[in-house]
């Protein structure tokens, strides 16, 4: 549990680049409307692939925000983070100066990093030889570069880290940023998750593992968490960023506060490379630890943004984890998977889902789980099927689980002085 003298941490800014909207307003409108971002892949010719669909970011031109030379020296995952990070700062009204730069940091997770750069450079290596590989290949590819470049572009000189915990990376990054502020190592953090892994090799690898949906003829209905007819997840891309800030610092500058982060739990299944432990024991323990950290009881929770991947392994396991963690209260809590709309952003998913959770609290609207028409009998909670739900939301949690057995839960609540 957090120390009694630890600092309160609030959300003062957000931004998102997603398959259903390239800024915060478009993203929230897409969530409330229940819009799917899945379509046939356009980043490459997918005709030889078993899964030919993805939730791509559409109409995104990094040249609208960055110098052309900078664009050429960044992989797409870093472009997302740098742009969303700058816009989230603007949204927060926080200005980084020489006086406060060392108290503001970056913590941005990515599960895979610059895979597109690696694939492209491998082709150059094979076709034209090692001397023709780009000197920027390694710094463009490594996963920490989203955090590093965001720091460079914003001037943030405080703590800078990158969580690489597969599909839990974005949530781990936010939780770690929370801890840094809570215990006085920073006054504010630019944090979240980013991913741009809709590439031939990535899609081939996930498809070979039989993890992806092959509903190629009807892409908008392919991501169907908790539905009996689901056949795998839809790979997505994008970025979600939060500005976390120490409460007194935020109040001193008159910041708008969109919510408070109050709990962070993480565990490991220590069971299997890709499969969750049966019964979701590790995930349940993670939820319980987050609630204990927050000083929140299960009956306080209004809404859960589920990991909800639309896979046979995750959905019933997460359902059981929620039941184990919350007891009978689980049936009274509204739960939804926004991956039904955005697809699965891998390391970026925790970022956009934390943004969705904060917006749900701020607007008292729970986003839906779309494409849920034939519920799996093993998934019997209230999943907010197909239409968003206006409802009071005081406390909400966001779950993220990753290959390797990583489990993360974040707890947010309405800010009250």
Automatic annotation (TrEMBL):
Keywords: Acyltransferase, Fatty acid biosynthesis, Fatty acid metabolism, Lipid biosynthesis, Lipid metabolism, Transferase. The keyword Secreted does not apply. It holds the Pfam family ketoacyl-synt. It is an enzyme of class 2 (transferase). InterPro entries: 3-oxoacyl-ACP_synth-2 (IPR017568), Beta-ketoacyl_synthase (IPR000794), Ketoacyl_synth_AS (IPR018201), Ketoacyl_synth_C (IPR014031), Ketoacyl_synth_N (IPR014030), PKS_Beta-ketoAc_synthase_dom (IPR020841), Thiolase-like (IPR016039). One of its GO terms (molecular function) is 3-oxoacyl-[acyl-carrier-protein] synthase activity. Its EC number is 2.3.1.179. PROSITE patterns: KS3_1, KS3_2. The keyword Acyltransferase applies. Belongs to the thiolase-like superfamily. Beta-ketoacyl-ACP synthases family. Involved in the type II fatty acid elongation cycle. Catalyzes the elongation of a wide range of acyl-ACP by the addition of two carbons from malonyl-ACP to an acyl acceptor. Can efficiently catalyze the conversion of palmitoleoyl-ACP (cis-hexadec-9-enoyl-ACP) to cis-vaccenoyl-ACP (cis-octadec-11-enoyl-ACP), an essential step in the thermal regulation of fatty acid composition. This is 3-oxoacyl-[acyl-carrier-protein] synthase 2. The lineage of its organism: Bacteria, Bacillati, Cyanobacteriota, Cyanophyceae, Leptolyngbyales.
